[in-house]
Amino acid sequence: MTLKSRYLKTAFVIALVNIILVLIFSGLATADNWEMVAHGGMGGAFSYYSYGAYSTAVFGSYLYVGTNNESVGCQIWRTADGINWTKVNTDGFGDARNRAAFSMSVFGSNLYVGTWNDSVGCQIWRTADGMNWTKVNTDGFGYVNSNKIAFSMSVFGSHLYVGTGVYGDEGSSPGCQIWRTADGINWTKVNTDGFGDSNNDAAFSMRVFASQIYAGTYNRSTGCEVWRSSDGTTWSQVNGDGFGDSQNWVAFSMEVFGLDLYVGTGAGEGTIGCQVWRTSNGTNWTKVNTDGFGDNRTRAATSMEVFGSDLYVGTRNEIDGCQIWRSADGTNWTEVIPEGFGDTSNREVSALVVFATDLYAGTVNWGTGCEIWRSTNGEFWMQVNTDGFAEPRSTAVSSMCTFGSHLYVGTRNDSVGCQVWRSADGT
Fold first, then answer.
1. pTM beyond cutoff 0.85
2. pLDDT in tens, 172-184
3. What counts of helices (H) and strands (E) characterise the chain?
4. Given CB 3.0 to 4.6 Å as the disulfide criterion, which of 69, 189, 354, 418 pairs with 53?
């Protein structure tokens, strides 16, 4: 056989294998192995007001999902089997202005929910049995204008911490606050308002690392700030404002990888793009990516996840499409998907979750609907749902979590209400 003949035969075999793989993976990219377990804004009444399943938590033997509902107020739903759901709160916890169940956390023997309320300020509700709820804070912790949203919750030591704030121009000084409780009822403010800067609009993110709690802010004036505390009451800023650039508005994501803490930023309307910073001691930071991973239109590092021996970062790019980058050492990065998974309408990787032995990515897609992609090795990816789960108005993966032997995906749908889908094998 001539060299040319061998080459042609090899090329034919490779092409044939690729065709077979495409056919196989096209078959997998259906909703056949996904089951819709909640629809129509959870209650099945097609309430478009409940358009997002935003917060989730596993508490006891139940999965809890919190929605936003701008008509009657947020709702909390739970399930023991993943199929049959029960609404366990009164709409909006009795106040329709509680538009969203924005955050959830298990602390001690109770489940806590933090709300978004533009009128009287955020509220914190808790339950010991999942059915009977008690409000455990004063509205907005006494600061109506500055504490509209309970952005973040974290358990550190023997306390539950809540970070508050506002979005954009929706509030006013004094800036974000950190509140904590040891018993779930009595709360103490443990930072100075706005950490001394009223432009710190929100305590957007929290993470525990190396026996300290870290809080990342949203600041559109001088850039995001990262603060930490070893005792929960004395806080020190550990980065320069905006990591040296005022366009780094928000500490969007935080993840611990190896011996280091990583922070992914969200950039404003400037030209830098998102940045990823890391620290081993909490005070000395190193930028470990090029701005925007080489594209200043990649504005935010929206999600982070550790999978195998690598750190993965999902981004938002509303022009070219989302990206996923990975690194084994935290400094050298490789892009592991084509931009937007080949569709520029996939503008954001809103979720990265490990389920069983695979990594899953959920997208925001305002064109054909949200998408779920899976990888066994972080390098090769295949779509495992139909676009929008066959509903193009399901534009975003608003939550993704594991419960029992299933992967659950909550969607945003502004037309017929949010949905929840699940899969036992992720395909």
1. yes
2. 679 999 999 999 9
3. 1, 32
4. 418
